Amino acid sequence: MRVLLKINDVIDVEVLQKIQDSFSDATGLAAVTVDYKGNPVTKYSNFSEFCNCVRKDSNNRDLCYQSDAHGGIESARSGKPAIYICHGGLVDVAVPIMVKGNYLGAIMAGQVKIPEDEMKKLPYGTSHELTDFTKHPEVLESYDKAWKTTLTQVKSAADLLYTIANYLVEKQMIHIMQEELHNKNIELMEEVKLRSEVEASLKEADLKALQAQINPHFLFNVLNTIGRLALLEGADKTQEMIYAFSDMMRYTLKKEKNNVVTLKEEMEHVQNYLSIQKMRLGNRLNYSVQIDEMAEDILCPFMTVQPFVENAIIHAVEPNAKGGRVEITADIQKDGALLKIIDDGKGISRDRIHKILDGTYEADGREKNTGIGINNANKRLMYYYGVDYGVEIQSEMEQGTEITIRIPRKSLVGRGL
């Protein structure tokens, strides 16, 4: 029987202890609450001299726990109180504590004698053999002092205990459900807030600004490099650079009315960007772009990857005199694709990562534009796919940075695409 919760998850143990003590005082029966293994959860209430004496011995105590566990499970199976004879020969009652079909434990009561003809009607708690206490006269003496009552009175006490247990569980479950509902309302409000923020940031002017997010510093470097190549070399590399740059501009401009692309298109755009940077930086930049063919047709928001690659160039490659390496991969998974952008730069501090992703990082010039691009990409991913998605950034100082983006294979219809 699988246990998903513990008794103290659904019932206040201090309150249970007070009710258990009052029940024992009112009925004369001993009581204790145990978990599904028979281990006590509350303190003993009105335990008999016999049971206290028996439980002083560890072996006998283990038998008591086993008897309680067995009685509790039997009550859980029947869904009502179980009345049985414990291994010590006294009558006990087990009242199950059940939550959504899961057995958490039981309230045990009893430790009494009833007439022999009524005893014969009851099952044994663990086996048909009672524990032999003939070598323990003090135990046998305390057994004779056990309180005597009738089976009818035991049943009435069991019904009362069952009513109390059900009330406590139902009361606490209502409280738990109210808390869950409150938490879900908070999550819904946060999601609505996130959607409204993204919708505001994705107005036409903001979107056009995002699409034109190839900053002036980058354009200046491109034009400078084209000029030097034209002067010092033949036309082949110049032509290659111009083609790559033209494809990037065409990719940016043609998405003005369609903000969704395939991963193949997005990666081709990144490849063009990197090839231009390679011509500018030469041997200081090494890179690789690998995309699983099975992932090429998966749709993703436009300009999802490029801001992170640009960030890697700015922070991992350019500041290093020896340059650096950038690796971009897109692997197919059961539910979509897994994108990674990895560099071997100096890394990013946790505080800076947090500020970049929540849009509070303040920087100047080119670095500021890149930070905005990363924040926008992260917000759009959460907007289109839900708050469980978005960007994960793992980085260690002097160890490089790894960006992880999960693109689910789900429809983007109704998300503004």
Automatic annotation (TrEMBL):
Alphabetical keyword list: Kinase, Transferase, Two-component regulatory system
Catalytic reaction(s) noted: ATP + protein L-histidine = ADP + protein N-phospho-L-histidine
The protein's Enzyme Commission number: 2.7.13.3
Keyword Lipid metabolism: no
Keyword DNA repair annotated: no
Coiled coil: none
Domain Histidine kinase: 305-411
GO MF annotation: an example: kinase activity
SUPFAM superfamilies: ATPase domain of HSP90 chaperone/DNA topoisomerase II/histidine kinase (SSF55874)
InterPro entries from the UniProt entry: Bact_2-comp_sensor_kinase, HATPase_C_sf, HATPase_dom, His_kinase_dom, PocR_dom, Sig_transdc_His_kin-like_C, Sig_transdc_His_kin_internal
Enzyme kind, highest EC tier: transferase
Name of the protein: histidine kinase
Source organism phylogeny: Bacteria, Bacillati, Bacillota, Clostridia, Eubacteriales
